[in-house]
Amino acid sequence: MKRFKMLNKKGQSTTEVVLIVPVLLLILFFTAKTFALLVMVQKLEIAGYYAARRWQLESHIGTSYQSWDRGLRRNIKGRVKEYLGFNKPIAKFLQLYDCQLDIDRSQTWNIVKLSVKMRPANIPILCKYPSNVVCADYGLACFKGYNYMCVSGAELEVKNYVSNRDRILDYHLLGLGKK
């Protein structure tokens, strides 16, 4: 008898469920996007270290090897783009469109700069109003967020400084000699 009484009770209003589902989906989207950006920043740090270390170990100081170093730069950039996911669906989700690898040589240091550019998200419900209306009471951080979401996108950048040696020197503990 109790089982039939439970079936006759009124259930949850479908209007409330229909109204709350889009809000939950929006929250889920923002959470996923934020997590993906955090992972991208970490992957960019790792890729920047990889590029700098590989450049330090495999590049040359002499000008006779400049053509080989250009090929090395292309190879490093290709591996970095593959690691960051430019050929995977995450590139579309994060709106990735460009990856730059710049290497500045100097007498002592090589400066290896890796940057990734992203298009703006252009979410219609968020970008409907101008920035001065949306961010009137929220300050500079709101304008930066609005510019990332609706206007210019973002650029993430990592700089690494590596020494300008032709090859890594052997490390020997004092008094032990070479084995």
Write the layout of secondary structure elements.
Elements: H1 2-7, H2 14-58, H3 66-84, H4 89-93, E1 96-105, E2 109-118, H5 131-134, H6 140-151, E3 154-163
Antiparallel strand pairs: 1-2, 2-3
Helix pairs in contact: 2-3
Which residues sit in consecutive blocks of at least 5 with pLDDT less than 50?
A: none
Strand content: 15-25%
- On the 0 to 100 scale, the average pLDDT is 83
Q: Note the main sheet.
A: 3 strands, antiparallel
Number of helices: 6
For the record, the count of structural domains works out to 1
Describe it for me?
The protein has six helices and three strands; from the N terminus they run ααααββααβ. It has one domain (15-163). The relative contact order is 0.13. The chain is α+β, with helices and mostly antiparallel strands and 179 residues long. A three-stranded antiparallel beta sheet has the order 1-2-3. Helices cover 51% and strands 17% of the residues.
Keywords:
three-stranded antiparallel sheet, elongated, 179 residues, alpha+beta
Provide a concise account of the structure shown.
The chain has helices at 2-7, 14-58, 66-84, 89-93, 131-134, 140-151, and strands at 96-105, 109-118, 154-163. The protein has 179 residues and is an alpha+beta fold. The protein has one domain (15-163).
